[in-house]
Amino acid sequence: MTTTRSIVSILFLCTAMLMVGCQGPSYVNVPRDNGDLAFNNPNGRTVRAVVVAAVDGVITQTPLTGPVALSLPQGAEALTYEAVAGQLASSNVIPAPEQGEEGAAITASLEVTSVRVRGHRAEVDAIRAKAEGPGQLVTVHTAWDAFSGWRVTRIRAWRINPNQPGV
Predict the structure, then answer these.
(1) What region does 28 belong to: left with phi over 0, alpha with psi -120 to 50, or beta?
(2) Number of Cβ within a 10 Å radius of residue 5
(3) N or C: which end of the chain has fewer CB within 10 A?
(4) What is the pTM of this model?
(5) Tens of pLDDT along 16-38?
(6) Could you tell me which of 70, 74, 76 has the C-alpha nearest to residue 91?
């Protein structure tokens, strides 16, 4: 009986560790900070999943009509743009490198500038801009859940001009 209980306990422990460990790297900085040992590939699975949740949250909070140009952090490849755009709930997001079809009028843009992941929590900084006004810096806070994946917990809009030097 003790042997059976030990085996069940070990299996339960291994299953719990797999559920936690399968999410990917738990310490990410995109773009890379000087002297940093963190994972910093903008094309990683975890980075893509966090960005999808964040972009969906920003677009849901700020209803935008018409095509929205999406720009990902420096170093993101075309396949990453396709993967992110394909997973978004909104179908009017166009990857910025392609700029959509000929003659498509871009009404807004969303530029993801940085991604920070710390275990089951992540922050994404982005600049959202409508055609008629200046951009606004937003920080999207997300959390990871084993059953639902990455989800937005809150969005913080900053009252600073992201085009100002030193920001």
Answers:
(1) beta
(2) 9
(3) N
(4) 0.78
(5) 665 555 555 588 888 888 877 88
(6) 70
